[in-house]
Amino acid sequence: VPALDVAAVRGDFPILARQIHGRPLVYLDNAATSQTPRQVIEAFDDYYGRCNANIHRGLHTLADEATAAFEGTRETVRTFLGAAESREIVFTRGTTEAINLVANAWGRANLEPGDEVLVSRLEHHSNIVPWQLLARELGFTIKVIPVDERGVLDLEAYRALFTERTRLVAANHVSNAFGTVNPVREMATVAHDHGALILVDGAQAVPHQAVDVRRIDADFYAFSGHKVYGPTGVGVLYGKAELLEAMPPWQGGGEMIATVSFEHDTTFAAIPHKFEAGTPAIAEVIALGVALDWVGRIGIDAISAWEARLLEHASRRVSRIEGLRILGTAPDKAGVLSFVVDGAHAQDIGLLIDQLGVAIRTGHHCAQPLLHHFGVEATCRASFAAYNTLEEVDIFADALERVIGMVR
Ligand code: PMP
């Protein structure tokens, strides 16, 4: 793997020049949202300054150009995820909307009372609550895939959860709260052996490692633009073509129809357009394509290797702190370091460390069932991206020691 030129990478991010409370910004909240390279920022200028138009139905030049750029991004995403066809790529508002799409389109058509959906204990609320809302209405059962004390999914228990009524597995590829990398390929095989589908929440995987949806054999795979150096307001649902084709639409409106009539049945557009009702976030989609191109230029394997070094260094530095406990000690982790400190509230640490220019996240990370299982309400979480440096990790660890000294 070629090494990552972190100075060059940093040069692409104007926000990294900011001072926070008179100190250089050390941004370690990348799992919540990553920062944006200037190429992506410029994509908005270019779009609104040069070819802003509604897509697909226009016959004029601007509409043609906007459509080409928008559909070009679909192809970029296809390549990025290793999907077979670009019609398997549906643009959404983000991971949350992608999962809600699967719940409402596939779930409503396929789940009945007595059916079972397996949801992992490691999930973000966005891969729990849509299933709970639907289960209330349709009367299927949610079963939880347990984790061990390291925050690793228990695969034996996972296998044992399957019955002839299991229809779907909902699991993330990488946990946003602990950084655990889940064996989704193996989990998919087990699901398929039992005639169930698997939906993989890839929000925290896509920024940190190469993803190949066909190798995983994921039936559905979701991610968000803003966690992979792209803008907010856009995300992706990958779905196998035959599944998407069989699913009813979930939102109605323009773009998603073939013909509309009061006299005959309204008919729907082919996939992926059937699932893209209304004017999409055109500029955001195009800018997401620019972000993925940027990742491609840096190289996802180089990013992965660099972040592994950052995580290792950070883990080593904070483990020296007395009374600090790392949550999530899986052998295979990506991007995230979560911890609690005896005698110091996460919230206080977060506020005070910000005074020293360091941005980390504190709270439940939208994973309350996981944190409750570990007996905590909140953790501190440092999370890494391509532009972070080993020096920043040291600044963070020094600042953390100082802050803990202040609150204890
Ligand atoms: N899943 C995971 C694992 C996440 O980390 C997040 C964002 N924290 C989401 C889903 C939700 O993503 P979004 O808010 O962009 O829809």
TrEMBL record:
InterPro entries: Aminotrans_V_dom, Cys_dSase_SufS, PyrdxlP-dep_Trfase, PyrdxlP-dep_Trfase_major, PyrdxlP-dep_Trfase_small. It catalyses: (sulfur carrier)-H + L-cysteine = (sulfur carrier)-SH + L-alanine. Pfam families: Aminotran_5. GO terms for biological process: cysteine metabolic process. Belongs to the class-V pyridoxal-phosphate-dependent aminotransferase family. Csd subfamily. Its cofactor is pyridoxal 5'-phosphate. It comes from the Bacteria. Gene3D superfamilies: Aspartate Aminotransferase, domain 1 (3.90.1150.10), Type I PLP-dependent aspartate aminotransferase-like (Major domain) (3.40.640.10). Keywords: Lyase, Pyridoxal phosphate, Transferase. This is cysteine desulfurase. NCBIfam families: sufS. The keyword Lyase applies.
